[in-house]
Write a structure and sequence with these properties.
With 294 residues, the chain is an alpha+beta fold. It contains 10 helices and 4 strands; from the N terminus they run H-H-H-H-H-H-H-H-E-H-E-E-H-E.
């Protein structure tokens, strides 16, 4: 029980820290430059620009009702973690905007108040990292994620990617009218969305990418022993038969880290009668641990 409490506390602390970082990201790179980020936060950013009503309040107004609905009808833990994210983000952002936490020297903007590509580049990469880590912790950053959770609950077959694309496209189009009928904010929104998506995908998949190698060989024991001793992974042996010669062969299946492919190639060169095919693995689930040296 103590371990479960410690794990849960770690999750909430991680989500809170990521939310605080996201508030700094918005204050330093986004809100002082003329472009809107993705999703419902993009709408809140434009509302602040037009009405001078702090995004910290708008975020709470939008997300708290969605959080309650998600808690009741979707998933309680997901809703609780995301609510912590939303509240911490809003509170820290209000502290920053009222200079209680003073970061004015760190705020990036050009002399005319318009952003260059540096602002959405930096903000997109940082927010992609935050989103990826928040999802890994079991929560999200709120807004569109709540809506996506509702839709997925009711209509699992719907593509959430398409829904997010439609919403982000709408935000980009609206930003043209909000920011003085200029095409620049539309381009910057697209840059931000692309970098956020790319970075979050790398965070969510990067640690679990791997290479799957299938080897047809007459030296299964020798190759397996070299893989274990030099790469600290193992193989799965499957008995096979050649379709032309009908000779008995062994199919070795091995999943390794991407950086180990060069080492495996060196091993296979020592067995010229071995044939191997290589494919990309986008995710690994379960036991993919390295075997310890004896």
């Amino acid at each position: 029980m103590t371990e479960k409490i410690r794990h849960a506390a770690g999750q909430y602390a991680a989500v809170a820290a990521l939310a605080a970082l996201m508030a700094f990201n918005y204050q330093i790179f986004i809100l002082n430059n003329a472009f809107a980020p993705a999703g419902l936060n993009g709408l809140a950013t434009m509302a602040q620009y037009v009405f001078h009503f702090s995004m910290g309040y708008t975020t709470l107004i939008i997300n708290i009702p969605l959080a309650i609905l998600a808690f009741l009808f979707v998933d309680r833990k997901f809703a609780a973690l995301t609510t912590v994210n939303v509240i911490v983000f809003s509170v820290v952002l209000l502290l920053l905007q009222n200079n209680i936490i003073d970061v004015r020297r760190l705020v990036y903007h050009t002399d005319d108040g318009r952003s260059t590509l540096l602002a959405p580049f930096a903000a997109g990469v940082v927010n992609g990292f935050i989103y990826g880590e928040s999802v890994k912790a079991g929560g999200s950053t709120g807004g569109m994620d709540f809506i996506s959770a509702f839709i997925h609950k009711k209509k699992p077959a719907y593509s959430l990617t398409h829904i997010s694309f439609v919403l982000n496209t709408a935000v980009a189009c609206i930003s043209y009218f909000v920011y003085d009928f200029s095409i620049e904010p539309v381009i910057l929104c697209i840059v931000y969305c692309s970098l956020t998506t790319y970075t979050s995908d790398r965070i969510l998949q990067g640690g679990r990418n791997a290479i799957r190698v299938e080897m047809i060989t007459g030296h299964p024991d020798e190759i397996t022993q070299e893989v274990i001793s030099s790469m600290h992974h193992t193989t799965t042996l499957i008995h096979a038969e050649g379709g032309f010669s009908h000779e008995g062969k062994t199919l070795l299946v091995c999943v390794i880290n991407k950086h180990q492919i060069t080492k495996l190639t060196e091993i296979l060169k020592r067995y010229p009668d071995t044939f191997a095919s290589i494919s990309q693995v986008t995710d690994t689930v379960g036991n993919f641990k390295r075997i310890k040296n004896s």
